[in-house]
């Protein structure tokens, strides 16, 4: 691990790693970041894959002035041949206002015809939508502001359930595991009927926050 000492003037704080291979989805980019207080043992914040790809990002809206240690490690205990650590004062964006809440279960699902905007915050919640399908082709896809990428803010999971709310019809996590972590369920011939479309945040086997997304249904 590499330890760096940093004196913070107070307020917003950010620390981010990048790598020469543009934070590719492989072990040589898989950094971790940990922020410690001046005693070197009190952990203030940590992150694994919050930046681009497998790189790391810590963002704090209001960090008290003082001395800190920023520690860069390797998550997979593999060698990271080269990285750049950048410390700044980028403020994390506020959570998007999700006008469809509450829609965290089948009973409170929001009707959707073509598009709906939402946010997965806090991690672990799910947004449920109801959709009446006329039969034939069906696609449900998520997109995020700024375009989908292989970052946690794009990492949605979409599932389609039958009208009972429990029978899984189809699901998808990543359109492209290497580059596009938005989700798309595409079916050539879905029978007519009522369905639930459920959006979650999902990264590396764990729930995550998706600050903002758009769900689009097309036929």
Describe the structure.
- With 219 residues, this protein is mostly beta strands.
- It is built from no helices and 17 strands.
- The chain has strands at 2-8, 11-18, 31-36, 43-47, 57-63, 66-74, 84-88, 110-111, 115-120, 126-133, 136-143, 156-161, 168-172, 184-190, 193-203, 206-207, 210-218.
- The strands form four sheets. Strands 8, 10, 12, 13, 15 and 16 form a six-stranded mixed sheet that branches. A four-stranded antiparallel sheet has the order 1-6-3-4, with no helix packed on it. Strands 9-17-11-14 form a four-stranded antiparallel sheet, with no helix packed on it.
- Protein structure class: mainly beta
Percentage of residues in helical conformation = under 10%
Q: How far apart are the termini? A: 51 Å
SSE run: EEEEEEEEEEEEEEEEE
- Mean pLDDT over the residues: 87
The radius of gyration over CA amounts to: 20 Å
Spans of 5+ residues with little confidence (pLDDT < 50)? none
CATH class of the largest domain: Mainly Beta
Percentage beta strand: over 45%
Number of strands: 17
Number of domains: 2
């Amino acid at each position: 691990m590499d330890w760096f000492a940093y004196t913070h003037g107070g307020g917003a704080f950010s620390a981010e790693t990048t790598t020469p291979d543009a934070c590719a989805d492989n072990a040589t980019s898989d950094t971790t970041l940990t922020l410690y207080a001046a005693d070197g043992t009190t952990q203030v914040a940590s992150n694994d894959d919050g930046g681009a790809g497998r790189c790391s990002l810590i963002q704090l809206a209001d960090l008290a002035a003082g001395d800190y240690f920023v520690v860069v490690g390797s998550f997979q205990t593999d060698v990271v041949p080269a990285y750049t650590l950048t410390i700044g004062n980028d403020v994390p964006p506020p959570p998007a206002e999700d006008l469809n809440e509450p829609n965290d279960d089948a009973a409170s699902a929001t009707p959707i015809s073509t598009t709906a905007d939402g946010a997965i915050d806090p991690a672990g919640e799910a947004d449920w939508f109801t959709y009446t399908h006329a039969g034939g082709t069906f696609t449900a896809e998520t997109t995020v502001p700024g375009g989908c990428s292989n970052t946690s803010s794009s990492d949605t999971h979409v599932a389609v359930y039958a009208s009972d709310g429990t029978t899984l019809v189809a699901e998808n996590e990543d359109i492209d595991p290497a580059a596009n972590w938005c989700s798309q369920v595409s079916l050539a011939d879905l029978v007519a009927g009522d369905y639930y479309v459920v959006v979650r945040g999902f990264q590396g086997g764990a729930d995550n926050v998706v600050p903002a997304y758009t769900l689009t249904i097309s036929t």
